[in-house]
Write a structure and sequence with these properties.
By secondary structure, the chain is mostly helical. The protein is built from 8 helices and no strands. α2 packs antiparallel against α3, α6 crosses α8 and α7 crosses α8.
């Protein structure tokens, strides 16, 4: 099992541009509706394929699990990296998350979201690592730890701006950063984040507000210093 968890994370190819026809045709509601239907059909096919892979992996197929790994490893690694701030630690937590997922697949409800289930396992792996680290350092166990950001947002194309954003997020208080990563970056609800981190929903909302406020301040300071 360990052997299939050492591949580098890969990104998907961009969408292929549509072929142009010999004549121009105005955009219409019909073509937009057709595109939407095709996208929905494609998502449905992907979801069905993932359910098939999960069922096969739960039955013991390592090939199916390796396929699931390749589909989800990038996002899981990104989550772990944002929550640990260290690439080596993030790789360890990513690997641990997939090992735990492999062991727990028989208890996974196939009708649920495999990606969300996997993210929760990854968050638990990160928090467990942080507790072990805190104990080794003689500190009180806490759900707060160093967080770093390596956002691959295509809207942030300027390298300097990207660097400022990463540094600003890395400098946030750890509790606020956890909530920012899970709620602000990955889009989990406050209820989901509070369950993942073991904090109250009100605390989650306050931390997200605090993170956004401090992030704005840090980015403003970075801009003034450039």
């Amino acid at each position: 099992m360990q052997a299939i968890l050492v591949q580098a994370w890969s990104t998907g190819l961009g969408s292929v541009p549509a072929q142009t026809l010999g004549h121009r045709r105005p955009e219409s509601r019909w073509t937009l509706a057709l595109d939407t239907a095709e996208n929905e059909l494609d998502r449905a096919r992907q979801a069905a394929e993932e359910r098939r892979l999960v069922a096969a992996a739960a039955g013991g197929s390592q090939a199916a699990f390796e396929r699931l790994y390749r589909l989800h490893a990038g996002r899981v690694h990104g989550l772990c990296l944002r929550m640990t701030g260290q690439r080596e630690t993030a790789e360890d937590c990513t690997q641990e998350a997939f090992v735990q997922a492999w062991r727990g697949l028989r208890g996974f409800e196939i009708r649920s979201s495999f990606g969300t289930w996997l993210h929760r396992i990854a968050v638990n792996a990160v928090l467990a690592h942080q507790r072990r680290r805190a104990e080794l350092l003689g500190l009180a166990a806490s759900a707060e730890e160093e967080v770093a950001e390596t956002l691959s947002d295509p809207g942030v194309s300027d390298a300097a701006l990207r660097g400022d954003l990463e540094a600003a997020i890395a400098s946030l208080p750890t509790g606020a950063r956890h909530v920012l990563v899970l709620a602000g970056v990955y889009g989990y609800s406050h209820e989901e984040v509070s369950a993942m981190l073991g904090i109250a929903v009100g605390t989650c909302k306050a931390q997200l507000h605090r993170a956004r406020h401090l992030l704005g301040q840090r980015l403003q300071l970075a801009g003034e210093g450039s």
